[in-house]
């Protein structure tokens, strides 16, 4: 599932391609919006809110979309071949004279009045990459349920918006805490929102997300790019491989068997296990 930094980049690309121009084509391929035609309306802005995208049009309308597991927005030039997936996966087409934005596999697509945007994003906590970022408020929300597991609290978008499973695992590692540690028992809990903000800010301009010092360096001339890519993240996706800090084998626990997005990764040495941790692989 795309995380806050990815959605921020998608919003930026959509804004650069569409904002300030009237639509010359509009095709919303969901039953509820099948008769909607926004052709002729100027695109005013594209705003990310956590993992949500809000495309605003003149006349006070907003197209709300969410990428969830594998949704995507692709931008194409007029003569460019569309390569985002088969036609039956297209859910939205927004075109101008210069670009066409195509939304593939979008599980959420709604049209609402711009003043009513809070109806779909008002429940979210402070946005890590947004103008409403408030670390004190985020910390207060995280600590409002002190017995809640740290990883679960970080994933709850009502606490702070933008963290997905990758950042959950990486943040727990950097905090040297098990994902199952009660959030209220974390030493210096004010580190949570500060570190989350630092990671997403550092990665919002990077196509390849990294949380380690090695992943931030360019690959040396002559190769070894693959070896460097294996060192971009501390624990996520590295089950069975050596911890980059201590050498202990990274463990994983599948919290939702049908979804790779809910596999938790951690180092049992750097992040001591808790009795209530689930069985490991």
UniProtKB/TrEMBL annotation:
SMART domains: Fapy_DNA_glyco (SM00898), H2TH (SM01232). Keywords: DNA damage, DNA repair, DNA-binding, Glycosidase, Hydrolase, Lyase, Metal-binding, Multifunctional enzyme, Zinc, Zinc-finger. Residues 2-121 form the Formamidopyrimidine-DNA glycosylase catalytic domain. It catalyses: 2'-deoxyribonucleotide-(2'-deoxyribose 5'-phosphate)-2'-deoxyribonucleotide-DNA = a 3'-end 2'-deoxyribonucleotide-(2,3-dehydro-2,3-deoxyribose 5'-phosphate)-DNA + a 5'-end 5'-phospho-2'-deoxyribonucleoside-DNA + H(+). Belongs to the FPG family. The keyword Zinc applies. Pfam families: Fapy_DNA_glyco. Its EC number is 4.2.99.18. Residues 206-226 are annotated as: Disordered. This is DNA-(apurinic or apyrimidinic site) lyase. Residues 234-272 form the FPG-type domain. The keyword Iron-sulfur does not apply. It comes from the Bacteria. Coiled coil: none annotated. Gene3D superfamilies: 1.10.8.50, MutM-like, N-terminal. The lineage of its organism: Bacteria, Bacillati, Actinomycetota, Actinomycetes, Kitasatosporales. InterPro entries: DNA_glyclase_Znf_dom_DNA_BS (IPR015887), FPG_cat (IPR012319), FPG_N (IPR035937), H2TH_FPG (IPR015886), Nei2_N (IPR044090), Ribosomal_uS13-like_H2TH (IPR010979), Znf_DNA_glyclase/AP_lyase (IPR000214).
């Amino acid at each position: 599932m795309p995380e806050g930094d990815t959605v921020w980049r998608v919003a930026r690309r959509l804004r650069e391609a569409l904002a300030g121009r009237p639509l010359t084509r509009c095709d919303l391929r969901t039953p509820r919006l099948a008769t909607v035609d926004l052709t002729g309306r100027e695109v005013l802005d594209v705003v990310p809110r956590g993992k949500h995208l809000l495309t605003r049009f003149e006349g006070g309308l907003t197209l709300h979309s969410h990428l969830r597991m594998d949704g995507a927005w692709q931008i194409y030039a007029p003569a460019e071949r569309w390569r985002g997936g088969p036609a039956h996966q297209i859910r939205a087409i927004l075109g101008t004279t210069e670009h066409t934005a195509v939304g593939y596999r979008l599980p959420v697509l709604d049209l609402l009045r711009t003043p009513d945007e809070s109806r779909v994003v008002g429940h979210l906590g402070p946005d890590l990459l947004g103008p409403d970022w408030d670390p004190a408020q985020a910390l207060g929300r995280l600590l409002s349920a002190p017995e809640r597991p740290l990883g679960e609290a970080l994933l709850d978008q009502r606490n702070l918006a933008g963290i997905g499973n990758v950042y959950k695992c990486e943040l727990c590692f950097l905090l040297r805490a098990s994902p199952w540690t009660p959030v209220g028992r974390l030493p210096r809990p004010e580190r949570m929102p500060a570190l989350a903000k630092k990671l997403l800010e550092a990665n919002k301009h990077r196509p390849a997300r990294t949380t380690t010092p090695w992943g931030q360096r360019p690959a040396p001339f002559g190769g070894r790019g693959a070896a460097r890519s294996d060192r971009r993240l501390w624990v996520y996706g590295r089950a069975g491989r050596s911890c980059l800090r201590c050498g202990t084998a990274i463990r994983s626990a599948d919290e939702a068997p049908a979804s790779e997005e809910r596999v938790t990764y951690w180092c049992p040495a750097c992040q001591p296990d808790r009795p209530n941790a689930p069985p490991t692989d």
